[in-house]
Amino acid sequence: MYRHLATTLSRRAPTAAATPSRSIQYLVRIPDFTDADALTRRMGARPAHLASAAALQEQGILLAGGAQLGGPDCNTMVGSVFILDMPDERALRDLLRADPYVTAKVWDVDRAEVQKIKLARLGTLKA
């Protein structure tokens, strides 16, 4: 389902390079659940999540992303932060709900923070 959704979105959603006026970049932060087994679930779902993320990056949907670090040692994965190029927020939230980290109960998607941003493209900025 996830790959199908990503493929469907890539057909409908132009990338920033294709038509910048029709795409919207979003900054997304999603915390992980905080129960004792959350990190174990994250590590178990990580290969599927990374494969899906790679496909989204290849399609120009995922522009950047990574794990948010925290915990007592400030080196434990406690959530994710990323930038997506999507046609609208509804499509973004549908995409999030299909992610392996959501289906494996890693991300607490109900606590996701989504913000529209205007991403600066290096090389296009003028002084």
Structural summary, described in words:
Helix content is 35%, strand content 26%. The protein has 127 residues and is of the alpha+beta class. Strands 2-3-1-4 form a four-stranded antiparallel beta sheet. The longest helix has 21 residues, at 38-58. The radius of gyration is 15 Å and the shape is globular.
Spatial extent as radius of gyration? 15 Å
- Number of contiguous helices: 4
Shape: globular
Counting DSSP E segments of at least 2 residues, the number of strands comes to: 4
- Rounded mean pLDDT score: 84
User: What structural class results from the helix and strand content?
Assistant: alpha+beta
Question: What share of the residues does DSSP label as strand, in percent?
Answer: 25-35%
What's the helix-strand series?
A: HEHEEHHE
The span between the termini is: 45 Å
Major pleated sheet: 4 strands, antiparallel
Q: List the strand order in the largest sheet.
A: 2-3-1-4
Low-confidence stretches: 1-21
Helix percentage: 25-40%
